[in-house]
Amino acid sequence: MPEAPEVEALAHFLRERLTGHAVTRVELIEARALKTRARPLDEIVGRAVTGVTRHGKHIDVDLAGVHLGIGFGRAGWATWQATGGGSEEGGSGEIAAGAAVIARIAFDIGILGITDAADWLSVQLHVVDAPDDVPAVAKLGPDAADPAYSRDMLSAALGKRRKQLKALLQEQETLAGIGNAYSDEILYAARLSPVAHAAALSEDDITRLYLALHDTLGAAVIARRGVPIADQKAAKVASMRVHGRTGEPCPDGQGVIEDIPGTKGGGQWCPSCQTLPEGA
């Protein structure tokens, strides 16, 4: 689950709620999630939030110079329980089915829970001096959801690489913030095959891919903002046109949505609409 649009919505929510509020206590339930063993989670207790930023699919919480990095991995997410049990906009504190609470961070106005629904531990927590001190953040490429991300930047990232487009879009060192679901949606909007190689794209293909990336992520960022934390996954799933729609009619054509070969059902496309570039 979370990709740039959902993580951006969460960062916005936390920034609005937590700026100026201090951590009152912490509870680390799964010790393996904390990757900075020399810097315990207790270090953030008593410190007030001065900023919350998104870095790809990661969140950085600035606590007056000490930073809490939260990497959600494939199955991590968050809950918010307002003080007194109220269910103000942003969540009721309920966790998704099958998820486990990894850590709780309490403030005077509520409790932020970090959860993980994977069979393996996918969430990572870091207590650091700067966002880039988190290794995964330091390696990130340009942010795919940044309005300033340009066609020229995408063209340079694609280069002449003999790598399939779906895999390349999910390569965080090349383009940060896109995962399995939005890569399917972007390629469908661009009418490009997920197994096409970047090196085979024409200038027109690159333009279509750029516009699809910009429009798909831009619309998703707007759509997710204000959706309660507990409802983000459902909102994302409902918005998908091809991802997770195996066997359903193509929303724009006469074809049928199929699993992408080699993904074992993890990715979907419309073979009738999404074609290989000429000469590929």
Automatic annotation (TrEMBL):
SUPFAM superfamilies: Glucocorticoid receptor-like (DNA-binding domain), N-terminal domain of MutM-like DNA repair proteins, S13-like H2TH domain
A molecular-function term among this protein's GO annotations: oxidized purine nucleobase lesion DNA N-glycosylase activity
Ranges where the Formamidopyrimidine-DNA glycosylase catalytic domain occurs: 2-76
Catalytic activity: Hydrolysis of DNA containing ring-opened 7-methylguanine residues, releasing 2,6-diamino-4-hydroxy-5-(N-methyl)formamidopyrimidine
Pfam families to which the protein is assigned, alphabetical: Fapy_DNA_glyco, H2TH
Keywords from the UniProt entry: DNA damage, DNA repair, DNA-binding, Glycosidase, Hydrolase, Lyase, Multifunctional enzyme
EC number of this enzyme: 3.2.2.23, 4.2.99.18
Superkingdom of this protein's organism: Bacteria
UniProt entry tagged with the keyword Transmembrane helix: no
Transmembrane segments: none
Keyword RNA-binding attached: no
Gene3D superfamilies noted in UniProt: 1.10.8.50, MutM-like, N-terminal
The family this protein is said to belong to: Belongs to the FPG family.
PANTHER family: FORMAMIDOPYRIMIDINE-DNA GLYCOSYLASE
Protein name as annotated: Formamidopyrimidine-DNA glycosylase
